[in-house]
Structure formats: C-alpha cells, structure tokens
Amino acid sequence: MGNTVDADQPPIASRLARGQTADMDKSELRPIVRARRAAVPPAVRASRDAAILDHLGALVTARMVVCAFVPDDDEAGGPEMLARVADCGARILLPVSPAVGPLGWSQYAGPADLQSGRFGIPVPSAPPGGPETIAEADLVLVPAVAVDRRGNRLGRGGGYYDRSLSLARPDARLLALVDSENVLDAVPTEDHDRPVDGVITEDGLLDFGTWHSAE
Ligand SMILES: Nc1nc2c(c(=O)[nH]1)N(C=O)[C@@H](CNc1ccc(C(=O)N[C@@H](CCC(=O)O)C(=O)O)cc1)CN2
Ligand SMILES: Nc1ncnc2c1ncn2[C@@H]1O[C@H](COP(=O)(O)OP(=O)(O)OP(=O)(O)O)[C@@H](O)[C@H]1O
C-alpha cells in the first residue's frame, strides 16, 4: 500500500546508504537518487562534468558514430557534452522520443539547430530516422539516474532506452554517464533491461568487461 510503513524495512535513505537497493521499486529509488544529484552544489557538479568529459573525450574518435543525448541539469555530462564529442570529429545522433516505443534518431548539426521536443528535451530540426538507426552507432552514450556494478541501469522511467538498446549492434559499446556516488551496489532490474558495458564517472571509466569490438 502506498502510505503504509513496513516496520521490517529501514527508511529508503538508509537502505540506499547500505546498498540494499536491489529489491526496491525503480519508482521508489529514482526520486531519491535524482534529489541527491540536485543537491550537489553547481560548482562541484561542473567540475565532475568536466572530468567526465575528459574521460569521454579520450574514448571518442573521428571514425565513430555516437548516439549521444542532451544532458539536462539533473544529468551527468553537463552542457558541454555534445561540443566535446563533436570536437573529436564523431558523427552524432540524438534521440527523439515518440509517445511510446523505441527512440527515433536525428543527426546533430550544432546547437543552433536544436529545438524543443517532447518533455522539453532539445532535438535536431531534421525529422528522425526510425528506431533501427541506432544500429549505425559504434558508441551509445546512455543517460542514467544510477547504474550498478553489473551495468544495470536506472533511467527516467519512460522505458525508451530499454526498448532501443536491443536494436543496437552487438559490437556497439554502451556507456552510461553518472556521478560516482550514483554507481550503486544494485539497482532493480527487469528482464528487458540490456546492461551497459561500462560507466563513465568523474573518476574514470568503470569497464564491466562485456564489450567486444568487431575488429
Ligand atoms: N537528456 C535525456 N534525453 C533523453 C532521455 C533521458 O533520459 N535524458 N531519454 C531517456 O529515456 C528519452 C526521454 N525519456 C524520458 C522519460 C521520462 C520522462 C519523464 O518525464 N518522466 C517523469 C517521471 C516518470 C516516472 O517516474 O514514472 C518525470 O521525470 O517527471 C522524460 C523523458 C530521450 N531523451
Ligand atoms: N522492451 C520492453 N518491452 C515492454 N515493456 C517495457 C520494455 N522496456 C521497458 N518497458 C516498460 O516500460 C516502463 C518503464 O521502464 P523502466 O522503468 O525500466 O524505464 P527506464 O529504463 O528507467 O527509462 P528510460 O529507458 O526511458 O531511461 C516499465 O513499465 C517497463 O516494464
């Protein structure tokens, strides 16, 4: 029941602190982790984002097609993320959310070309390619609220990436971006979740060893 307090369960915040998060509902965990990120002072956030972008920049090459996203204030990576990936010379695809189902993808053509899309998320002006466009990607940067040490990810709750990542090539590298404090021991999973191959935090790349390039 929504408002019933279960005497056997410690409060959510202390379960989070103790890593007892595997059996929590995603909808229970999501707002707590998001509030924690929102409480980080802007200057600290900016320095974490700068470190994350340095680690990301070291991985991206001009030959890559990168599925990226436009981070908002709540999300690791920060406002310079697309510029950094573009500076590496990669071709960038951005997600376009339909009402339901997998994401469409449009090519990024610079900040001036972005317009407000569903949920107020910026999208390129060109009409998106279909969900299968994600198969062009060598690297998929996946937004996440939290990730666990097996690569399970907690997103914003639209189920968009869950439905989209199954269409990525098997040799595409899937990397989430989160602050290190949001790498948890466990996040709740469902059968349809495709784990990421690694996570970039301000401390560097945490690689789960699951990615195998086609070369
Ligand atoms: N920057 C960014 N772009 C992205 C995503 C993302 O997570 N980050 N997406 C990743 O999929 C897609 C958009 N997904 C979204 C999913 C849910 C909500 C949303 O408004 N959720 C409600 C809470 C829903 C719930 O808790 O049940 C909210 O935030 O109030 C917004 C966008 C595509 N683009
Ligand atoms: N492939 C799928 N097939 C059917 N239902 C799905 C699929 N993926 C997700 N869902 C459903 O969509 C809803 C949201 O999923 P979930 O909470 O995992 O989203 P999320 O991964 O946090 O969000 P996002 O991927 O948008 O960042 C859930 O009810 C989930 O069961």
Gyration radius over CA: 17 Å
The CATH topology comes to Rossmann fold
In terms of DSSP E residues, the strand content is 15-25%
- Describe the main β-sheet briefly: 7 strands, mixed
CATH architecture: 3-Layer(aba) Sandwich
- Could you state the CATH homologous superfamily? NagB/RpiA/CoA transferase-like
Structural class: alpha/beta
CATH class categorisation: Alpha Beta
The helicity comes to 10-25%
Helices, by number, come to: 5
> What's the assembly state of these chains?
single chain
Terminus-to-terminus distance: 52 Å
Q: How many DSSP E strands?
A: 12
User: What is the total number of structural domains?
Assistant: 1
Mean model confidence by pLDDT: 91
Q: How would the global form be characterised?
A: globular
Architecture blueprint of SSEs:
Blueprint: H1 12-17, H2 26-38, H3 42-57, E1 65-67, H4 81-87, E2 91-96, E3 104-107, E4 114-116, E5 122-124, E6 139-143, E7 146-148, E8 153-154, H5 160-165, E9 173-177, E10 183-184, E11 198-201, E12 204-207
Parallel strand pairs: 1-2, 1-6, 6-9, 7-10, 9-11
Antiparallel strand pairs: 2-3, 4-5, 7-8, 11-12
Bound molecules: the ligand Nc1nc2c(c(=O)[nH]1)N(C=O)[C@@H](CNc1ccc(C(=O)N[C@@H](CCC(=O)O)C(=O)O)cc1)CN2 and adenosine-5'-triphosphate.
InterPro entries: FTHF_cligase, FTHF_cligase-like_sf, NagB/RpiA_transferase-like
Region (Disordered): 1-25
Protein name: 5-formyltetrahydrofolate cyclo-ligase
